[in-house]
Amino acid sequence: MSGDLPGGAALCCGMVPTQALPEPPDAWLAPVVLDMEASGFGRDSYPIEVGFAMPDGRLYCSLIRPVTGWTHWDPAAEALHHISRVNLLRHGRDPTTVCQQLNHQLHGMTVYSDGWANDYSWLGKLFDAAGRVPSFRLDNLRGLLSERQADHWHATKQQVANELHSKRHRASADAQVLQLTLRRLHQACT
Prior knowledge:
Layout: E1 2-4, E2 10-12, E3 15-16, E4 33-38, E5 47-53, E6 59-63, H1 75-81, H2 85-91, H3 95-106, E7 110-113, H4 116-130, E8 137-140, H5 147-151, H6 153-164, H7 171-188
Parallel strand pairs: 7-8
Antiparallel strand pairs: 1-2, 3-6, 4-5, 5-6
Helix pairs in contact: 3-4, 6-7
């Protein structure tokens, strides 16, 4: 379910059905893809939203309320994801709740990210803040691509985003685009 926040940002919570692109009956089942939005880049940045796309097309996303000490804020990052710190404080979930939900939904799975180095660090900060350990493994999405698929990645990703009319730069929307791009490349290049 999602609701609108002031300024056009959307708050997404929980698992929601999605409009997936049509797929052939023998379609490859894409893996779970995770994406994170953050307060900026660099050592002092922290996660502000996490989202993932499940193989069956369900999406999950949650805003993350900053904890004490998470103060870095980059206006350039906010201009990209359109999530204000005020909205995080007002609508974000505490890290413990977010980690419990992630562990429940992703338990035992390998989850893939296209920004592995950053997402790994931000996921670590999230779980550290909650005093928890992930019950799933985060891996680099690039490892799923052949050289041929990697050569077509950016063009295919843009095509998928255009077809979905994806204008939101948010965690679950980005995860969906990444997952559908993987699926399309697997179908086209196998």
